[in-house]
Specification:
With 103 residues, the protein is mainly alpha-helical. It has one domain. It has helices at residues 2-15, 28-41, 55-65, and strands at 49-51, 95-97. The longest helix has 14 residues, at 2-15.
């Protein structure tokens, strides 16, 4: 259900003339088809950015983001490790970023 909802919200905002930023842990194996269709169907300019960060780095960033969060997402009890991206190459036409390890 959430994939369809994200798609509908993005399309509604784009059709109303807004710029849209869709951000999150969006594993290509799960969200890729929706994202590609959204890019394909959008008449304007689209940009995709793939943050290539290891699970270890993701957990490190979550631990240092805010003390109360720890390695769990503040919106749920789901461990970050169970929602991490699936790695692999960036989707076609997307820019890949490999940031340095945060301190």
């Amino acid at each position: 259900m959430n994939i369809g909802l994200l798609d509908a919200m993005c399309r509604h905002a784009l059709n109303a003339g807004y710029h849209v930023i869709l951000e999150g842990i969006l594993a290509r194996s799960r969200y890729g088809e929706m994202l590609q269709a959204l890019f394909h169907d959008h008449g304007g300019t689209s940009h995709g950015y793939y943050l290539d960060v290891s699970l270890e780095e993701t957990l490190h960033r979550h631990r240092t983001d805010s003390p109360e969060r720890g390695s769990r997402d503040r919106r749920s009890d789901t461990p970050v490790s169970s929602r991490a991206g699936d790695g692999g190459p960036a989707p076609k036409g997307w820019r890949r970023f490999r940031p340095r390890r945060s301190r």
